[in-house]
Amino acid sequence: MRAATSLKPDLNHQTMNGLVAFIVPGPDGYSKKQGEWTKTPGGIAAGGTRALIETLDLFIPSTPPLTTTVAAILNAQATQLDPGIVPGKYDAPFANLAFSQKAEVFRRLEALQGPEAGALSFLAGNLPGLVAFLVYAEPKVGYKLSRYSGVADGRREFKGYFHA
Amino acid sequence: MRDVIVVGAGGGGAVVAKELAARGLDVLLLEAGPRWAHTEKQWSHYERKANNPASGYFRFGPSDLKKGPWRRDLPQYCYLWQTGGVGGSTVHFFGNCPRPPRGVFAGGSGDYDPHRFPFPYEELVPYFEWVEHTLPVQTAPMGTKEEVFLRGATRMGLRVQTGKDLEGEACRAQPNAILQPAGKAGKAKNPKYPAAKGCTFCGHCLEGCIEPRGAPRNLRAKRSTDTSYIPMALTANRWGNGRAVELVADAFVLRVDLLPVAGLRPLAGGVTWRSTKTGRQTTEEARVVVLAGGCVETPRLWFRSGLPNPNDRVGRGLTDHYPDFVIGRFSSYTGSTRGPGSNARADFPGYGSLEVMTLPPALQAYGLAFSASGIAGFYDNGRGTTAGADVTGRLVGKRLKRFIQDVDKLINVLVLTDDDVEPQNRVTLSHTSPADENGAIARVEVPYRARSARTVRNREFLAAKAVQLLRAAGAKEIARMDLAPVVFHLHSTMRTGADQTDSVVDPNGESWSVGRLFVADNSALANGVGGVNPTLTTQALATRTAEKIFVKYFGGEPWVGKESPVSSIDAAVTRAVKAAGL
């Protein structure tokens, strides 16, 4: 029982899973919970959650870690949007939202006014692109999803010079 | 005492250092970031290693990647895409070197008053030629995506430009600071020097050029300054009759030290820097100081040093080309991940330019999920102008996966807007974020919803042209991102001008308010150079500034137009680079 409990992702991890599934869904539980999922692997299978947490916490080293702050912001918005969202499948409110509700969270964050709006707008704006980057940078899943041939020192692509 | 201290070894500082070293001056070149001396081992083709904003070796930060990036205060949705280290942002640039339109210079036509360059275009042409030979700049070769782009451009009626000077709306192969392919380059998957020379079409310009493998440092395909001007600066005593530059990396300049002069403007007398590895501070004197830390760090250093700002122009007027991104999805192979960063372009003088762009999958996905127009299908932040595209806003979820399901069937068109110098776009010191180990951090304000009517008009015009081009080329679906500010072309925060009340440096690049202090990076540009890639103009201007310094403070004679430049790929330079063990 104790081992099983320790394997359960914490609130931050659940929230980030919910975010990664929102940007690049797959066949995982978080994607199915939001109602938008695919048969092909998604961002969670690509290790996007761990990469996201590591990137955020290194981007602005702080106490508490930036991941905790981001998770708190997303979960606060989720609870405000749907006060009955917890209890649910996940402890993290954001991870329980439907796909369209997650989009609404981002709309609200981008629409905020006031002294903190700039920082929140920076965060909310950059999160989707950052997740997309991290997922598609991962060779096993990201390259497969985009049918990228992989890195190389050269390509057979030189076709000559342009003449009108 | 040094003759000259140059702060910043990027696109502009490396040029000043090399040119003055070639004249025999004692030049100290300080760089806050790392020096990549063994790039074949230190760099990688993997985007996650190079381009991660926190841990990537091209983030703006110290040598120790575990320490994360240096912070900036960014009070809006944006991404500031700069690199630290020797070579500056040229290490990840595309090498595109178009000349700017005449209109942005004194006596030109168009809506650029009062922010024109304080001299006519013709005065800078010899400096363009000097830089074009030194780098060198060559006509870009074609791959599949260039064929597709130029097919669309010519079908929409654009004529083909053949000369270097802009002559109205036209398309062409890029003039690139990238060596043309020879031998097995562009024809093999793992080519090595000397069987392959020049660009190998690997598709990894954004991760830094290490091709062809085994080539001497000055013969790498892409002519970022770490492969062109820096090797020449470090060997100026070997390939010519100059004096080798002393380069100190991991040296963050904390302040410019002044010499007070009774009754007159103060003079720059040296700088104090901090080792980012040991924390030790060092002060050194010089007869002339040149600032070239870029559009953010140069004004930051200015403010931190307490230098005069009598007209409140320091840091103001940031231009960024208000970039946009239009992507077409095709039913057949386009080779979008292959070849140099951009090998074909279309220019629309008075509006800006379009260029086809190579993107590997992660940066491709990033670009598809970065927009000021909200999330496609849900909200658009009151924007949502498609410019004729099928969709606008961030692509997320199934929509993103579907669009990028075959990255080599996309064509990316980058929109570079001829944007106005506007005072609200600015760099200051942050009063809300804590200082870092190098002092108060920079605050960069680029409110994307408050651009001038002309800037917005130009961007919409170009986005519509990009859509038109992609449709003409055969795209079956087009997304217009309406990018939030991805600030990678930064200019004009320390503008040169003829009017002392509306600029920071005079027409020679010297500060109006501090003598012997010059600016020689993108920040010295008078404007956004009409929406073309800025590096060539910055390097030509930096060459001119170096000449002005040599004439005014060292009693020398001008050399551009009188001597023949030595190319950075000249056999004498290669011998010098090898002999110096670079």
Write the CATH architecture name of the largest domain in chain B.
3-Layer(bba) Sandwich
Low-confidence stretches of chain A: 1-6
Return the string of H and E elements of chain A. HHHHHHHHH
Shape of chain A from CA axes? Answer: globular
Tell me the number of strands of chain A.
0
Task: Tell me the fraction of residues in β-strands of chain B, as a range.
Answer: 15-25%
Q: What is the number of beta strands of chain B?
A: 23
End-to-end Cα distance of chain B: 27 Å
- Oligomeric state of the chains? heterodimer
Total number of helices of chain B: 13
Q: Structural class, from helix and strand content of chain B?
A: alpha/beta
Strand order of the largest sheet of chain B: 5-6-15-16-18-14-21-17
> What is the 3D shape of chain B?
globular
Q: Structural class per helix/strand content of chain A? A: mainly alpha
The mean pLDDT of chain A is 93
Q: How far apart are the first and last residues' alpha carbons of chain A, in Å?
A: 73 Å
Number of contiguous helices of chain A:
9
Estimated radius of gyration of chain A: 18 Å
Largest sheet of chain B: 8 strands, mixed
User: Approximately what portion of the residues of chain A adopt beta-strand conformation?
Assistant: under 5%
Instruction: Estimate the helix proportion of chain A, in percent.
Output: 55-70%
Properties at a glance:
A: 164 residues, mainly alpha, 9 helices, globular, disordered N terminus, B: 582 residues, alpha/beta, Glucose Oxidase, domain 3, 2 domains, 8-stranded mixed beta sheet, 7-stranded mixed beta sheet, 18% strand
What does this structure look like?
The complex is a heterodimer of chains A (164) and B (582). Chain A has helices at 2-7, 11-23, 29-34, 48-59, 66-81, 93-96, 99-111, 117-136, 139-145. Chain A has 164 residues and is an all-alpha fold. In chain A, helix 2 crosses helix 4 and helix 5 (66-81) crosses helix 7. The N and C termini of chain A lie far apart (73 Å). Mean pLDDT of chain A is 93; it is low at 1-6. The mean pLDDT of chain B is 97. The longest helix of chain B has 21 residues, at 453-473. In chain B, helix 1 packs across helix 12, helix 4 packs across helix 12 and helix 5 crosses helix 11. The two termini of chain B are 27 Å apart. Chain B is globular and about 70 Å long. Chain B has helices at 13-22, 39-42, 47-50, 121-134, 144-155, 229-234, 236-239, 294-304, 361-368, 398-403, 453-473, 535-554, 571-580, and strands spanning 2-7, 27-30, 79-80, 138-139, 159-160, 170-173, 175-176, 182-183, 196-197, 246-248, 251-259, 267-275, 281-291, 324-329, 344-348, 352-357, 391-392, 410-417, 426-429, 442-445, 477-480, 486-487, 517-519. Classes of the chains: A mainly alpha (164), B alpha/beta (582).
